[in-house]
Amino acid sequence: MNLIEKSLAVNELFKDLAIETQQFNEQSHLKCLSGCGKCCANPSVPATVLEFLPLAFEFYHSGLAEGILAQLEAAGEDSYCIVLNQMTIAGRGGLCSHYSHRGLICRLFGSSARRNREGKKELITCKLIKEDQSKQYQIVSAAIQNGLEIPGSADYYTRLFAIDFHLAEQQYPINLAIRKALEAVFSFYYYIEGEAV
């Protein structure tokens, strides 16, 4: 598979996840607080290059790639996700400016489960949801143990690895993952154009 095909395969994975996530969200009635963005206000959110290929191709084709790359290079390691539109000075609120091209980590958080040390599924979510929607969170946690269907984060990472293990094996802070995805897209087109000459 070339890089475009890998990006398309990631998008297919995202479509499958969107279906499962929507079904879970309709049954769970849990939702993020309006305008929160606190999970994005963390410079060390771990992400892979592969999950951000669709975003990198979007930046490239929309003519934004060079500007975004310059922003990423200028941003320090303590910077929040480059696509977070902060709505408060303290950085505690915001919305994703490229929501349809967000990474796998962004799609799984709040709508997927992992297995804990006892092998039981537990919802991957934030402290704010656990506290603000405490009663519903407890109901949903019990329902998950009793068979409520929920996307499994490990299942989707396994599918990501199957697309390209090399681009999915290493996790980086989110901005570095986005930067490496952009660099991969630039390299891809550089070699394509070089072959056309």
TrEMBL record:
Entry-linked Pfam families: CxxCxxCC
The protein's name: YkgJ family cysteine cluster protein
Species per Swiss-Prot/TrEMBL record: Echinicola rosea
Organism lineage string: Bacteria, Pseudomonadati, Bacteroidota, Cytophagia, Cytophagales
